[in-house]
Amino acid sequence: MDGMLPRVSPSVKARLGKHMRTCRDAKLYRRYLIIVNLLNDRSPPRVAAIVGVSRKTVYRVAQRFAAHGEAGLLDRREDNGRQKLDERYLSMLYQVVKSNPQDHGHRRPTWTREMLAQTMKHKTGTRIHVATMSRALQMIAARRGRPRPTVRCPWSKQAKNKRISMIHRMLNHLPRNEVAVYADEVDVHLNPKLGLDWMVRGQQKEVATPGQNEKRYLAGALDATTGQLTWVEGEQKNSMLFIMLLHELRKTYPSAKKIHVILDNYRIHSSEITQAVLAHLGGRIVLHFLPPYCPDHNKIERLWEDLHAEVTRNHHCPNMASLMRQVRHFMRKRDAKARSDCYAKAG
Predict the structure, then answer these.
(1) pLDDT for position 184
(2) Which residues, including other chains, have CB under 8 Å from residue 286's CB and lie 6 or more apart?
(3) Residue 76 host element (H or E)
(4) β-bridge mates for residue 230, sequence order
(5) Do 169 and 36 share a structural domain?
(6) Which of 56, 81, 250, 323 is the most exposed place for a label (fewest CB within 10 A)?
(7) Which domain holds residue 109?
(8) Alpha carbon separation from 29 to 23, 32, 42, 47, 51 (Å, rounded)
């Protein structure tokens, strides 16, 4: 097969393999399977035996892939004019899908297949059917998903990067007798958060809500080096909850000369009573504030996401006491795993 197939990069080969695994069309899956096997240096006779087709079919699929790329696997028309879903078209479609429809003169803020087909006709001069657009979207691995709401940091890019770099330098040059933790608070609601779940056709699972909502709050700290967890609970999300965490950190790390706490700008972290407690501790606990609205840089945020996914989302706990037992079990389990992993690395 030397010379018949173009050289492809490892990323393209991985993409072809991914598309093959997610393909639901049996004939298209077979063509992907032929190309993936050929790219893995298997001979045409060997590929024909693996896939269960004739050698002629293997050569024909290879020739179409060499001529049209991945689009040649999807559109098998031999004599029906120019190939529409070529690499140029798909590459431009990829960029269009990433953009906002209003950037292209549409009033609607979300894409439809009809709008994509219209926009691509304007950009490329190529007109395709809506059903063909569905196939084109599949080829570029596009999907319909929910956007993630974000609030942009009001700081300049330079100021934001400077603060984050300063925190990273502190972490990279942390003395042996000092520790650093990521800290934050999380709300635990008795009324369950609703989330996606698998259901069979015709079924819509129900999640019972107790009605009158109750809340509890955790203030937690994640060791930046070991992953060890320190946390406290409270019925109010106020300065006292954060101060309880500071005292718990002091007990958790009795021999640490300094405890560096990386956290967001929530008001309880810089209130007057918090500042008074920090002064009373004599500088042993040092706060490092992240830029505003930068949760991705606080590693404990991932822990809270896992807490909601494994405990609070779609839960069936009838009361707050049973829900908090589940929360504590999750926290203890994660802490035990972090300690075990740390000991294993040290050993």
Answers:
(1) 97
(2) 258, 259, 260, 261
(3) none
(4) 221
(5) no
(6) 81
(7) 10-139
(8) 6, 5, 18, 14, 10
Query: Does 311 fall in a domain?
Result: yes
Residue given tokens 């008795």 in the structure block: 190
Are 229 and 303 found together in one domain? Answer: yes
Look at residue 212 and give its three-state secondary structure. coil
* Residues 182, 167: Cα–Cα separation, whole Å: 11
8 Å CB contact between 111 and 83: no
Residue 265 lies in a domain: yes
283 vs 157: CA distance, rounded Å: 30
Separation CA 124–CA 78 (nearest Å): 22
Nearest Cα to Cα of residue 62 among 51, 135, 9: 51
DSSP H or E run through 13: helix 10-22
Helices (H), 99-236: 113-124, 130-139, 157-172
Rg (alpha carbons) of the chain, rounded to whole number:
28
Establish if 274 belongs to a structural domain.
yes
Within the chain, which residues score under 50 in pLDDT? Answer: 1, 77-81
pLDDT recorded at residue 28: 85
Same-domain status, 261 and 329: yes
Helices 239-252 and 272-280 cross at an angle (nearest 10°) of 20
Contacting residues for 12 by C-beta, under 8 A, at least 6 apart: none
Same domain, 288 and 255: yes
The pTM (predicted TM-score) of the whole model is 0.66
Is 289 found in the same domain as 181?
A: yes
